[in-house]
């Protein structure tokens, strides 16, 4: 995972160097900034290695708004910062102690991607890749555990989508992202189970978004 993140960060730096060396205008109409407001569905593709009691993890799907900001170096190359926060219910399932309700947790996963846009008309598809930093906060440990702690996670992202221009400024957007995200969780269940349990959790969510954007 660490080598992959380093590779993606190096690729982003190379993309920025390449983009700033171009002589083309920032965007089709010369605008450098682009803003989108999307509704997104965040669907974890979760799995876990839970010590001592075994089992797996179940993490709920979330529906939230998302805001992103893009800066165009030229009409093809851009950087996009993606901002959203999601709340997920968490459950340990199939453990030696049965299914365990672990309450809920909020995720704040700012994601920076480098994108290439295929220009030439009103339909503008793009591909992207980048890095993600996920912060866990607002933890409610549920009715069984005394406390649940999640480590801050660094991962990477792949992205694809398209903009459909309505006029020179406004457009519709569809976007799909895959985050590769892993965290270590520590569950203090001393009262109920007489032990503290650790787990290596892969969250790896798919994120589907649809919304509207504007160029400035």
UniProtKB/TrEMBL annotation:
Range of residues in the leader sequence: 1-21
UniProt record, GO biological process: transmembrane transport
InterPro entries named among the record's database cross-references: OMP/PagP_B-barrel (IPR011250), OMPW (IPR005618)
Short name of one Pfam family: OmpW
Superkingdom of origin: Bacteria
GO cellular component, one term: outer membrane
UniProt keywords, alphabetically: Signal
Stored PANTHER family: OUTER MEMBRANE PROTEIN W, PTHR36920
Listed name of the protein: OmpW family protein
Lineage of the species this protein comes from: Bacteria, Pseudomonadati, Bacteroidota, Flavobacteriia, Flavobacteriales
């Amino acid at each position: 995972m660490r080598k992959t993140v380093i590779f993606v960060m190096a690729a982003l730096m190379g993309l920025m160097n390449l983009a700033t060396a171009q002589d083309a205008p920032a965007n089709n109409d010369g605008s450098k900034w682009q803003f989108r407001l999307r509704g997104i569905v965040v669907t974890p593709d979760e799995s876990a290695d839970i010590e001592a009691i075994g089992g797996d993890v179940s993490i709920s799907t979330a529906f939230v708004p998302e805001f992103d900001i893009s800066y165009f170096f030229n009409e093809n190359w851009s950087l996009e910062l993606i901002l959203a926060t999601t709340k997920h219910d968490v459950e340990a399932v199939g453990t030696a102690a049965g299914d365990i309700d672990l309450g809920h947790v909020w995720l704040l996963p700012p994601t920076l991607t480098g994108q290439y846009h295929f220009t030439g008309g009103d339909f503008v598809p793009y591909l992207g890749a980048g890095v993600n930093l996920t912060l866990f906060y607002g933890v409610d440990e549920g009715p069984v555990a005394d406390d649940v702690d999640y480590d801050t996670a660094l991962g990477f992202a792949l992205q694809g989508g398209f903009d459909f221009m309505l006029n020179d400024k406004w457009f519709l957007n569809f976007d799909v992202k895959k985050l590769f995200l892993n965290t270590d969780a520590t569950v203090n269940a001393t009262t109920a189970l007489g032990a503290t349990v650790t787990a290596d959790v892969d969250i790896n969510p798919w994120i589907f978004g649809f919304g509207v954007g504007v160029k400035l």
